[in-house]
Amino acid sequence: MGHYRPMYQTMALPLSAVKGVGPALAKRLQRRDIRTLGDLLLHLPKAYIDDRQLTPIRLLSDGEPARIQGRILHKEARGYGKKRQVIIHLADDTDRIRLNFFHSGYMMSDARLTEGREIAVRGIAECWQGHWQMTHPEWCVAEAFQPGYQPVYAAMAGLSGKRMATLIQQALTLLPVPAASPLDEVLARQSRFCSLRQALKQLHAPANPDQATLQQAAARLKSEEIIVYLHLMREKKRQADCPAIAMQAERESSLLHQSLPFALTDAQAGAWSDISGDLCSGKRMHRLLQGDVGAGKTWVAALAMAKAAGCGHQAALLAPTEVLAEQHAETLQALLAPLGLNIKLLTGSTRAKARRELLAELQSGELKLIVGTHALLSDDVVFNHLALALVDEQHRFGVRQRWALADKQRAGQQAVHLLGMTATPIPRSLALALYGDMDLSIMRGMPPGRKPVETRVIAADKMKPLAAGMQRILDDDGLIYWIVPRIDEDEEESISVDQRVDLLRSYFPEAHVLGLHGRMKSAEKKATLDRFSTGQCRILVSTTVIEVGVNVPAARLMIIEAAESYGLAQLHQLRGRVGRSCEQSYCMLIAGEQASPASMTRLQQMVNTHDGLELAEADLALRGSGDAVGTRQHGEAGFRLLNMAEDALLIRQWHEHLPDFEPSDAMLQFWRPYAESTD
Ligand code: ADP
Ligand code: MG
Fold this sequence. Notes:
Blueprint: E1 5-6, H1 7-11, H2 23-30, H3 37-41, E2 47-51, E3 65-78, E4 85-91, E5 96-102, H4 105-109, E6 118-124, E7 126-128, E8 131-135, E9 138-141, E10 148-152, H5 161-173, E11 179-180, H6 182-188, H7 196-204, H8 211-240, H9 252-259, H10 266-281, E12 286-291, H11 297-310, E13 314-318, H12 322-336, E14 343-346, H13 352-364, E15 369-372, E16 386-391, H14 399-406, E17 417-422, H15 428-434, E18 439-443, E19 454-459, H16 463-475, E20 479-483, H17 490-507, E21 514-516, H18 522-533, E22 539-542, E23 555-560, H19 568-575, E24 586-591, H20 597-608, H21 612-623, H22 648-656, H23 665-670
Parallel strand pairs: 1-11, 5-8, 12-17, 12-18, 13-15, 13-16, 14-15, 16-17, 19-24, 20-22, 20-23, 21-22, 23-24
Antiparallel strand pairs: 2-10, 3-4, 3-6, 4-5, 6-9, 7-8
């Protein structure tokens, strides 16, 4: 391998290396998972402004943004108190314009803004009584103006898009010129790929942001992540191929099988036969159980846990959120306790004393079954004899996390069986690429008696008829979910939930409307969900935190605002929260006013299709040639950038032709597949 100055060393620099980032700012960004220079560079522009040309003042158009350059004729302060302004009169060879700024002492004394100096200004031109003016334009001295395309960023962590732009441009200047990624050399042989450094430059400071160039640059950047991921998986596959405990026939799983309130569906029975076969085989199980939302994966998991415990071993189930872990603990307890099997819960909220006792019981082997969140992965969680690790909603965990639990066998003990579960319906070819390290059991269909969720697309201004529909559900003892639009700023998330709660309380004073969002404490979230699942609260206003796995069978109406802003797969997940009983359920997709015809077509798919896999494929087809870059800043499946629907082709491509190279540690560290869990 040739010589390169490692790029990832620079990417790993702390934020404090970036000019203008102090401790307070660093902390704020950290809360949004931006810890290093490289993290900052993954915040990709959402659009680009063409700022290549100067417009002569005379040729400005009213209401249009433009860049002008001129000489300062005069500067003055005007008005009093809050209305105080700094006014600058500017002229070029064609005409004059008046620039209005909020008053600041700094502008009045700024030497760059004195008469006769040239400045370049960008703002919205307005024609007022025959005179041009701009209000709060951006400005810089004429010499500093660099014509080109300006990237536009989403605001984040309370920083405006412009502020983000400044930081990111700063970060870019820190990438040393000869810096290379270990992949640069490998990919250079494929002529369509530039270096990683160039790709970042093209995305953040494009000379020419045409779709093709941007797509190439994004593909180059994403290729780093995919290739690292696929390498990790290859390594895991090698690791998976080893002997493990062969479980024997036991009473517990067959007793549970007989005591279930309903017969297993054929799909469940098929999956269980795969899994129990694996557990008895003496070879390590490494299987993914894929089944649509509501397909009944939990029972299959319970059977596997019963089998492990029945054979005298331990089993642990990892869930991505506390809410889900608690719910699983309850469900599993109800199923397993009658067989004399005890199951406990471990989360970040478990009190110190209870935690100590629990850890001791795990270590002694007295406790056989446990459910928990990431807290289970902590080093001091030591098992006596772990034989089976289950990871629910495994797409929420990175490869390493998925394996961390299964790596908890003690020295000298046999390898732990691993069962992942996911409702993310991914087309088989993509599943093979993404989860190529696992065997696949697919559960198709639903438990009997379920009716497809009747789905409608409605306009945003139809609150009256919608309220009438909601009242009918409430009268019929049904519960309602209301999902508020997704917002870039998590600080504002709680505000939009609160506003909706207020509105709905005014319509339904008896319904005990409550709100749920990601910034609430775990205990608060749990209390809220408890009140909803027991029917004390009848309408739950929420952000997409309820997306994952929550099971409240009495919920029969799902209302999703600004539905066009979600992918089909996510809408399907959300819709899967209702239709969990034999009663008819409904889903109302509220389309925002700006919904494009294309997104309306997409929403229509939800009306016509109820099969998750079909929807996933439709999503793929519809998005195949879709928007260029960054519709989502952080991907799913534990990815930082990748989006399974958008990047399916690229993923498959690298899966088929995986280049032979060794990712460096810094590189692995950077793309650390992380779980974007809400806890
Ligand atoms: P998911 O696959 O999304 O995790 P769950 O395991 O939460 O789905 O199951 C959804 C609901 O279906 C639960 O309320 C469960 O009790 C019920 N269920 C599961 N299996 C069956 C079955 N064979 N017959 C009837 N109901 C079932
Ligand atoms: Mg589930």
